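Query structure, 184 tokens:
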């Protein structure tokens, strides 16, 4: 049994049933879009961004009906507010070659968007056949670059979210509901 949330700190924004339903819808849309692109015996390459994406990705891939394989990348990004520049360091690279592959990038949340923008540019340079982007949450208030998000679970304006892979100080990733932290 899961421990209960502290009502002083959390508010459930999307409960686990709502999240599961939405993930299934995304999986169905992805399957319908990608199926016509894949040659016989070709697999979709699903790339998860560690650490946050792993919960969403685990659920999402089980609702996708085309053949697929997975890979992970780990990035660390540092936003310098003074120069409004971002430095992204790759802590773990992909193990698969992506040239000529159909790629689905999976991320927990798009916030400023700088991490995803950097990653898309980095992947495009390796000439994949296509890149699609799936995020569990699209958080708009602080977006700094325009991003083409192909599959969005939930759109929120602002707030700090935890659960379903999202952390606050490395905690709460294991919560099944998407919650908003109070007092932030
Ligand atoms: P950005 O889009 O470059 O700002 O980076 C997005 C990253 O910031 C995500 O991958 C998360 O790790 C983190 N992040 C942004 N907003 C939240 C949130 O509300 N909860 C948890 N992590 C967040
Ligand atoms: Mg992250």
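Result returned for the query:
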């Amino acid at each position: 049994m899961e421990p209960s949330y502290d009502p002083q700190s959390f508010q459930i924004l999307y409960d686990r049933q709502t999240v599961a339903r939405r993930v299934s819808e995304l999986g169905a849309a992805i399957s319908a879009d990608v199926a016509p692109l894949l040659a016989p015996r070709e697999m979709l390459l699903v790339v998860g961004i560690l650490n946050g994406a792993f919960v969403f990705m685990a659920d999402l891939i089980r609702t996708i009906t085309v053949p697929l394989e997975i890979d992970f990348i780990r990035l660390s990004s540092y936003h310098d507010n003074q120069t409004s520049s971002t430095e992204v360091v790759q802590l773990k690279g992909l193990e698969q070659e992506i040239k000529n592959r159909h790629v689905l990038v999976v991320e927990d949340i798009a916030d400023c968007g700088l991490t995803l923008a950097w990653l898309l540019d980095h992947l495009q340079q390796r000439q994949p056949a296509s890149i699609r982007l799936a995020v569990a949450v699209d958080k708009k208030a602080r977006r700094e670059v325009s991003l083409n998000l192909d599959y969005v679970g939930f759109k929120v304006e602002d707030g700090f979210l935890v659960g379903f892979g999202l952390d606050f100080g490395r905690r709460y990733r294991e919560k099944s509901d998407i919650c908003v932290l109070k007092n932030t």
